[in-house]
Amino acid sequence: MENVNKRAKAFNEREIEVMTDNMKLNIHKLRMNHGSGGPGMVARVREIWDELLAGVNACGNGPRTLQQIKKKWRNMVNIE
């Protein structure tokens, strides 16, 4: 019987590099106050996360969810 609570694979170096590079380009947009970002800011933030998700999934280490990506980023930032 297959284990339903199977853990995801650990993030590899390439996935972490893709996340870091993408965030270096977009962190100022993500930290911007949504109200001061003008109309469509929420949609732009969603697009940034979707692009990051697509980039990480293109690395081929298995499909990642947006929640996994956000949690990994939070953990990486809190460690540093």
Describe the structure.
The protein has helices spanning 13-31, 41-57, 66-79. It is an all-alpha fold and 80 residues long. It is elongated, with a radius of gyration of 14 Å. 10% of the residues are buried. The model has no long low-confidence stretch (mean pLDDT 86).
Topology:
Layout: H1 13-31, H2 41-57, H3 66-79
Helix pairs in contact: 1-2
Domain Myb/SANT-like DNA-binding: 7-77
Protein name: Myb/SANT-like DNA-binding domain-containing protein
Pfam families: Myb_DNA-bind_5
Order of helices and strands: HHH
Number of helical regions:
3
Q: Which structural class do you get from the secondary structure elements?
A: mainly alpha
Give a quick account of the main beta sheet: strands, pairing sense, barrel closure: none
Distance between the termini: 40 Å
Our Rg estimate from Cα atoms comes to: 14 Å
> Low-confidence spans: pLDDT under 50, at least 5 residues?
none
Task: Count the beta strands.
Answer: 0
The best one-word shape is: elongated
* DSSP helix fraction: 55-70%
Mean pLDDT: 86
What's this model, at a glance?
The chain is an all-alpha fold. The protein has helices at 13-31, 41-57, 66-79.
